[in-house]
Design goal:
315 residues; Nuclear Transport Factor 2, Chain: A; elongated; ribonucleoprotein; transit peptide; Tim44-like_dom; NTF2-like_dom_sf
Length: 315
Amino acid sequence: MFRDRLRLFGIPSHSISLLHPVVQSGARNMAAFVRLNIAKGVTCLLNVARFAPSCLVIPVRTKKRLKVPPRSYDPLERQQKQLKAAGLMIPEEKLSQYITITCTRGIFDPYIPAEGDARMSMLSKEGLLQRTEKLRQTAKSYTAIRKIRESDPDFRIKTFGEKAQEIFIEAHNNLANFNEEKLHTLVTEHCYPEMVQGNECKTIRWSFLESLEPPRVVHVRCPTLLNEDLLYGQVTVRIHIRQILAIYDQFGRLMYGSEQTPKDVLEYVVFERHLLHRTGQWRLHDKIVPSWAPPKDPLIKTVMIPGPTLTPSEA
């Protein structure tokens, strides 16, 4: 094969043996180089894309390598500088939000009043059970009173009833006048939605006439919650008063009660205070409705009566 390749370059076969071994090796390398170039040329000539028109050649999209240069400035910092130059101060955003528990969601141990505050005879079984339950509840109340006095030394059972009745009267006066700011200082966040719910577009007339019986404390509770910082006191006060209540709708029509007829009301009102709070105060928290209490009078709902249908000529 080597002799045939040399004949291609015009070298006779009888002179091959006369060549130096180094020359023979160089001739072989040269022949291999020529053969490689010929193969590359044939491959290039036989390429289909070379003979196809340019409209049929579809370029293949490769991976994008778009490098985004880093920003030379912080946009938030630039905005702050511009607002500061314009004289507008940006309030600092608080990363953590604190939760303040100012009141509880209900009543710890609801007081169950006897029907009509009647006293049964101790000779009967029902009277004995009633007296035993009353002694048990009284013992719990005295324990709670001692715990409340540790945080509020001025707390007294004899004087708290009158103070609670004043809070009750002032809260209802502000409810009738729609003084929300003052009402928040007299009732808890649990009681406020229940008092103002459904009072939109209504007029309330409420007035206190007299106290039929002196208000008295009947129930005191001060349980321990999750930790020592969450210490709340709840006091249930029996209030028996005579009042006037009238509710009018947005058209001035009477819906409930009367301004001329007074009504006697017996209420068991719960007052609550966050004892460990520096500015904590006793506020109206909830109301206990006994199971034997008579049902309230329903509201007189006013509706629109549609008029006669008019023809196009009468309209």
